[in-house]
Design a protein that fits this description.
Helix content: over 70%
Order of helices and strands: HHHH
Oligomer: single chain
Structural class: mainly alpha
Number of helices: 4
Number of domains: 1
């Protein structure tokens, strides 16, 4: 296996893991919105709570990245490049945290989706039907 193929395989595995985390986060977010709604938290407040939690998680990643350093013994050019990359990633993470903190409307969307799913899962009410009149007979006579 050549290096390019190995890198592509490793990247594909990373994407699969990220996709799994995103799927699990969506399910968890939905569960949190349901739980908050069940105890009477209004959708606007639920949005604020969840958005702040998610922004805090991104801020934690920002802190972790910002505290990283180039491998010990690296030459100055490598360290300069390392810190330039760290600053770029940190700036992106800050922007993502700010955007995440400002997100609203997901609790209402989740509540509407839940109502729709519950409605779809319940059997449709059966309407009574009249037996059709035998051929040749008129109804109402």
């Amino acid at each position: 296996m050549n290096t390019e193929q190995h890198d592509a395989d490793a990247y594909g595995q990373e994407l699969a893991r990220i996709s799994q985390h995103q799927h699990e986060a969506t399910a968890a977010r939905f569960t949190v919105f349901q739980a908050l709604a069940a105890v009477g938290v209004p959708p606007e407040q639920a949005d604020g709570i969840v958005s702040q939690l998610e922004a805090g998680a991104v801020a934690g990643a920002h802190t972790w990245i910002s505290k990283s350093s180039a491998p010990h013994g690296s030459d100055q050019r490598y360290e300069d490049g390392w810190f330039e990359g760290v600053r770029a990633v940190s700036s992106d993470l800050l922007r993502i945290a700010d955007t995440t903190a400002a997100q609203r409307g997901r609790a209402t969307s989740s509540a509407l989706l839940l109502a729709h799913l519950r409605q779809s899962a319940s059997p449709a009410p059966k309407t009574p039907t009249q037996d059709p009149a035998p051929a040749g007979e008129e109804v109402g006579r």
